[in-house]
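Work Package 4 report. The design task specified in the project plan requires that, given a folded chain encoded as structure tokens, an amino acid be chosen for each position. We show below one input record used in the internal validation round.
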């Protein structure tokens, strides 16, 4: 049935499957302080494109894997992504008031609770991944590799490292090369994780994982440059956050370095590079991943 959906229908369908699974991710029977649960749920269920979990599912699908076995890792990456957004919006970081079209977590729950809601989501992600083995019988060594990837790609050598480079760069970035380092870690690493997680759960070997890593790296960079372009020429109501924030925060971006048109060309070039890498992976069902790359290049939010 899934195969017959247009890419737009597919993304909507998979996002709703992920949302349903996320609602059950923190067991209802756990005695979690009510306000903490509320703060975690507030950001987790605030919408968002659910791109990363959809990539987990699409990568598993590309190898003919079981979607229900990939769902715990899909939920995990959305928890990590959501925690990173909550922390990124804090006064000590970007100090943003709106996210996903709603007041940011700390605006509603206060700074201390927002930090803890992020911590709760970050920690629970690891609990979620392990369920692939405990509930769906995925071999433990595959799940171990997914756990190690997540710690590496979301942690100090991955997204957190990218965020630090970004923070330090605010004191004066000099080259597009430095900017690329930030994007590769802040953005591409979680996308690479998502693809590898889905593929690992479906039993991928090293050559496939390496090709997916190349696909995800280029796709992530294209996604981030498109994000920067939309911050200049996008529609606030579609984005769910104010535009021109990079300019306001004096952030250097691809459009800042090379202009809008050259940035748009770069997005196309990276998308083609990503698609080429994917085709080299020789996956049995690569179509959805190819379509997702194409769709992201054309996205307006
Ligand atoms: C605080 C450790 C720490 C890291 C923060 C995610 C992040 C790193 C910062 C947020 C700002 C930003 C522009 C990050 C780059 C990745 C990105 C484009 C995030 C937005 O992702 P979308 O568009 O958001 O997928 P939705 O809301 O649709 O999920």
């Amino acid at each position: 049935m899934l195969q017959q959906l247009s890419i737009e229908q597919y993304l909507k369908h998979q996002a709703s499957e992920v949302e349903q699974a996320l609602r059950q991710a923190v067991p209802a029977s756990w005695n979690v302080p009510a306000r903490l649960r509320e703060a975690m749920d507030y950001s987790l269920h605030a919408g968002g494109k659910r791109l990363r979990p959809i990539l987990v599912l699409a990568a598993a699908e590309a190898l003919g894997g079981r979607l229900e076995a990939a769902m715990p890792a899909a939920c995990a990456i959305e928890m990590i992504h959501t925690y990173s957004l909550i922390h990124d919006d804090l006064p000590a970081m970007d100090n943003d008031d709106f996210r996903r079209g709603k007041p940011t977590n700390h605006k509603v729950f206060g700074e201390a609770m927002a930090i803890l809601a992020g911590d709760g989501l970050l920690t629970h992600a690891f609990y979620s991944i392990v369920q692939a083995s405990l509930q769906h019988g995925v071999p433990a060594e595959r799940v171990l590799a997914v756990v190690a990837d997540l710690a590496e790609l979301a942690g100090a050598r991955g997204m957190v490292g990218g965020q630090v480079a970004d923070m330090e760069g605010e004191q004066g970035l000099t080259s597009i090369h430095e900017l690329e380092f930030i994007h590769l870690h802040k953005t591409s690493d979680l996308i690479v994780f998502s693809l590898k997680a889905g593929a690992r759960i479906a039993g991928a070997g090293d050559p496939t994982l390496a090709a997916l890593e190349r696909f995800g790296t280029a796709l992530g960079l294209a996604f981030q440059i498109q994000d920067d372009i939309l911050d200049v020429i996008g529609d606030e109501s579609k984005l769910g956050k104010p535009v021109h924030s990079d300019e306001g925060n004096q952030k250097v971006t691809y459009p800042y370095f090379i202009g809008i048109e050259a940035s748009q060309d770069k997005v196309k070039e990276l998308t083609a590079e990503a698609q080429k890498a994917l085709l080299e992976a020789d996956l049995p069902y690569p179509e959805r991943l190819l379509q997702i790359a194409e769709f992201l290049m054309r996205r307006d939010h």
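The pocket of geranylgeranyl diphosphate is lined by residues 48-49, 51, 81, 84-85, 87-88, 100, 159-160, 163, 186-187, 224, 227 (CB under 6 Å). Validation will be extended to a larger panel in the next phase.
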